[in-house]
Design goal:
With 332 residues, the protein is an alpha/beta fold. It is built from 11 helices and 9 strands.
């Protein structure tokens, strides 16, 4: 059962990135420090909030667009929130879509239930279905990254009648994963995932530096700003936030799923160490007619490293009948 309520909130609505890293590059014979140029501020659509209740768990959903428009459902990955999609939203919105962006359970301003049973594959897929129901969307184009991509794969397989088109970014087909633990980011700290009390106690004392490092290490310098990182730190610090975020990796997610019948685009970065191009192509091979897009000079966070390329691909794939004619295989 699900229910929804609307709020005209506009927090998180503006990206404060911009300018340069404020290092002193002169004086006292010190070598010049590297100056990092950050991406310019993005222009967001007029976002509002909706709370969607799924069996007692409130999901915070940001959305923009006209009721009755085709829905584009964006599902973020670890360790982000809806805000991770900010750079690609405006173009999809301008193409006539109602963009819908939940904070997944355990993340951002959504509830953070306790216990692994609250994070099984069936439960998180039902969350996505409930969000579609709340927006009266019989079908939607679903775009997922990382963990959100795994939810998207499973949603398309379990509820083929609800998925118009599927785009997965940095997320292999579930049958190609040993387990959902294989989705963990790089870093020695991830080995402690099997010790539930340890990380929620340790990481705050380190100002979440290991998570921040693994996030930044998988993208190009300057793709996100210090202000973006601080937004994430605030999110990680929310009560029960870390145990809930990490529970996704410890809950039961079966490898085998049903057939995906929706038109599918599998995207990865040319430098993605988690989902290299060969794995993306093997994932696309699991779906009849699926396409692979390898975005050059992008790591795991394609939507941060090369948002223009991903945006162009999304708009073409979701909306344009000419996509096949304009398709350039395996690169952008």
């Amino acid at each position: 059962m699900s229910s929804a309520s609307n709020h005209d909130h506009h927090d998180d609505a503006h990206d404060s990135r911009g300018g340069h890293d404020d290092h002193d590059t002169h004086g006292h014979g010190a070598p010049a420090a590297e100056v990092i140029t950050y991406r310019p501020e993005v222009r967001l659509p007029p976002l509002r909030d909706k709370l969607v209740n799924v069996n007692g768990v409130n999901l915070r959903v940001r959305y923009a667009g006209v009721d009755g428009s085709p829905v584009a459902l964006f599902l973020h990955g670890f360790p982000e929130s809806w805000y991770g999609w900010r750079a690609v939203l405006r173009a999809v919105f301008d193409a006539g879509y109602q963009v819908v962006l939940p904070d997944l359970r355990g993340y951002g301003k959504s509830d953070k239930p306790v216990g692994l049973a609250a994070f099984t594959a069936d439960v998180v897929v039902q969350d996505a279905v409930a969000v579609l129901d709340a927006f009266k969307a019989k079908k939607a184009s679903v775009i997922g990254h990382d963990l959100g991509g795994e939810v998207a794969w499973r949603l398309a397989a379990a509820h083929p009648d609800r998925v118009e088109k599927l785009v997965v970014v940095g997320a292999p087909h579930p049958s190609l994963l040993r387990s959902n633990k294989a989705l963990l980011p790089r870093g020695a700290w991830t080995g402690a995932i099997a010790i539930p009390p340890l990380l929620p106690w340790l990481l705050p004392k380190l100002n979440y530096a290991p998570i921040a490092w693994s996030w930044l290490d998988a993208m190009n310098p300057g793709s996100v700003s210090p202000a973006d990182l601080e937004k994430l730190r605030d999110s990680w610090a929310r009560e029960h936030g870390l145990p809930a975020m990490l529970a996704w990796y410890r809950a039961s997610w079966p490898r085998q799923i049903g057939d995906v019948r929706a038109p599918t685009l599998v995207v990865t970065g040319s430098k993605d160490r988690s989902v290299p191009p060969a794995l993306a192509e093997a994932s696309a091979a699991k779906v009849s007619g699926a396409k692979t897009l390898v975005v050059e000079d992008a790591g795991h966070w394609v939507h941060h490293d090369q948002p223009e390329a991903l945006t162009a691909a999304l708009v073409a794939f979701l909306g344009a009948k000419e996509f096949q004619k304009s398709w350039r295989p395996h690169q952008w």
